[in-house]
C-alpha cells in the first residue's frame, strides 16, 4: 500500500490569522481540504492519515464527510514540531500497515502538489527505499553572516555558494515504512532526536543515511505567510480559467 501522511499539526503564526493556516478557507474551502483532495484523487494512493492539532481533530471528521474523502482512514494528534508530528504519525500506523508499505509525508499547507510529483516520489521510493521531491536551485545564493533573517539590518553576505551544489527539498518525503519506523526508533535510543533541526531529512543526515531525489517543481511551495495564501487563490482561479477554456473548445 501507499499511505499519505498529511501533517496538519502546525499553528502558522506568520500568517497572522486567528485559526491555524491549514484551516483557512480559500474560495470557500480549507487549504487542508485542497491538499487531501489531491491525494484522495491519486490512483496510487490507497489510504490517508492526517496528523492534526488536537483541538481540530473533530474538524477533520467534518471535512471527511463534507468532501467525501473515502481514503482518509486515520487521524491522530500532532506534536510540538514537524519531527514530533511525523513520529506520532509513524507510531500510530504500527501494526496497521506492513514494513514494505510506502508512507508519503506531506505538509497539509502544501496544496500546490501535483499528481506527477506524487507518482515519481513513489517510483523512486520503490527503487531506493526513500525519496524526496526536489529541484535544483535556480536563484543566486550567498551565505549569511549570521543565522538571523535577511530582514535583520545587521545581516549581510560575503561568501558565494555555488548553486549547482544545492538541492531544494520540498515534500512529499516517501519512505518504506519499516525504514522510517526504525530510523526514529534508533534516534530515540541514541538520544539524538532532539539534537538536530526538527525534520526527518536532518535526522537522516545525522544518522548518515542517503536521501534520494524525485521529481519536484518550483510551484510546489509550502504556504507560510499571507502572500502565499493570495498566491494560492490566484493559482486556483488560473486553473479554473483554463478548465473553462478547455470546456468551451470541446463544446
Could you describe the 3D structure shown?
The protein has 251 residues and is of the alpha/beta class. It has a single domain, classed as Spore Coat Polysaccharide Biosynthesis Protein SpsA, Chain A (Alpha-Beta Complex). Helix content is 37%, strand content 22%. It contains 7 helices and 11 strands. A 7-stranded mixed beta sheet has the order 5-4-1-6-10-7-11, with helices on both faces. A two-stranded antiparallel sheet has the order 2-3. The longest helix is centred in the last third of the chain and has 25 residues, at 226-250. It is globular.
What's a quick, concise take on this entry?
This protein is α/β, with parallel strands linked by helices and 251 residues long. It is 37% helix and 22% strand. The protein has helices at 31-41, 57-67, 82-92, 115-128, 177-190, 200-206, 226-250, and strands spanning 2-8, 25-26, 29-30, 47-52, 72-77, 102-107, 130-136, 142-144, 157-160, 167-176, 213-214.
What's the topology here?
Blueprint: E1 2-8, E2 25-26, E3 29-30, H1 31-41, E4 47-52, H2 57-67, E5 72-77, H3 82-92, E6 102-107, H4 115-128, E7 130-136, E8 142-144, E9 157-160, E10 167-176, H5 177-190, H6 200-206, E11 213-214, H7 226-250
Parallel strand pairs: 1-4, 1-6, 4-5, 7-11
Antiparallel strand pairs: 2-3, 6-10, 7-10, 8-9
